[in-house]
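Quick one, tokens below:
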């Protein structure tokens, strides 16, 4: 007997979902958000094309593969079908909560890094105290690497107070985290400061993990467009 996942154990209102659908031998990707959850169904906002930002034309019976980062910080996917279209009190769509056997994990429980440049203001808690503008070379929900500023050197073990400027299509969102310098990578070019987040709220970690996932989706879109 198939077992339905308990929606509120895995999904949350406001969670981002990504849908994929193949059209004319091309994979099209969409982004949406959960606006409500019942015992058996998930209500989602209209789907927006991640490449051009346009709203997708969706009808009942359309099928997709849905990807998301769960509350458990794991990457999941499942087959999703639009089962109902709603017009009141606002336009939305309903999909069924996946059965246990339909749900697949697509990553192990670890923080996946993505190479991305993010501006950051960094307070360096060593003598003498300093405030630096840095740029990341990669980031994950568990830590990041900063490009080592020219002419600077820092000792492993020092603590950074970081204000990260996460770039979204709608603008910047700022995240304040505390990080520990684990090691300095002098073998890379440019040299990197490899840091681990030691003070970050669960909601902030979820936001970073979701940001990394969205960056991966964007890169897949770019690679697909180059190969077509």
């Amino acid at each position: 007997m198939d077992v339905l996942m308990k929606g509120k154990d895995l999904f949350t209102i406001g969670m981002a979902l990504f849908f994929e659908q193949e059209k004319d031998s091309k994979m099209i990707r969409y982004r949406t958000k959960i606006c409500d959850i019942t015992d058996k169904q998930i209500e989602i906002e209209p789907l927006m094309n991640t490449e051009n930002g346009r709203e997708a034309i969706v009808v009942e019976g359309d099928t997709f593969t849905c990807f998301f980062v769960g509350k458990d910080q794991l990457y999941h996917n499942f087959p999703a079908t639009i089962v109902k279209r709603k017009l009141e009190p606002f336009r939305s769509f309903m999909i069924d909560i996946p059965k246990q056997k339909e749900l697949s994990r697509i990553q192990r429980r670890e923080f996946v890094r993505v190479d991305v440049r993010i501006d950051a203001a960094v307070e360096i808690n060593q003598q003498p105290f300093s405030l630096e503008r840095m740029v990341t070379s990669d980031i994950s929900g568990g830590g990041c690497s900063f490009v080592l500023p020219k002419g600077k050197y820092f000792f492993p073990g020092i603590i950074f107070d970081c204000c990260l400027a996460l770039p979204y299509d709608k603008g910047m969102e700022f995240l304040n985290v505390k990080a520990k310098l684990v090691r300095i990578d002098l073998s890379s070019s440019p040299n990197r400061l490899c840091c681990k987040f030691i003070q970050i709220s669960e909601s902030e970690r979820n936001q970073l993990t979701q940001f990394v996932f969205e960056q991966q989706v964007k890169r897949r879109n770019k690679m697909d467009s180059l190969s077509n």
